Task: structure prediction
Amino acid sequence: MGAILHSRNMFRLTTLFCTLLLALSILVFGDSPAQDIFILAGQSNMAGRGGVADGKWDRIVPPECQPNPSILRFTANLTWEEARDPLHADIDVGRICGVGPGMAFVKEIISQWSRIGVVGLVPCAVGGTAISKWAKGGRLYDKLVTRANESVKEGGAIRAFLWYQGESDTGTIESAQAYKGRLQKLIQDLRSDLNLPTLPFIQVALASGEGKFVETVRKAQLEINMTNVKCVDA
Result:
């Protein structure tokens, strides 16, 4: 039952992601190896924990997440390879990764836009990380920006930034109340450092969390009012 619910939730989220991208009209199709590049960042929900139980991944990959030669993954070694779950296996190291939303997201794009070429996914998520760990000047931020810049050196362009994070900020009222400002600053810094001032930023509003201030973080996510920033309600 848990695997079925996870699959249903993933399908709902990825469909909403794609609807938002269509509304933003950001996809440009072409022939280079990774023409349309998407950054995946956040914590465990983005890194992928689908099918993980008791410290093991069941290795079951849903049909909507099966590999496709037209979907590439940017590895920890900054090279492109055919994408397959767990997308974050060499990024979220020290943790057991399973199925995440990345592959299903791209499969939904391919199903809706027949002219799309090769899509590149750049996994950057790390489980258990509060948003303060992603602030500019920190290790995670610097690594994210480096990976994003390296991903376009052979061509293509970053089309959107997908963010699924916040559970680790629900533990204290201080971190929950600071979330909105920190997220706004993160978006501003990323757009500036990637030289993409209108980069679409798509985030997921929390449905659960580790602490008792889930609603405070969730409210902050839903209240973000910035150009090309959209929120998918989980």
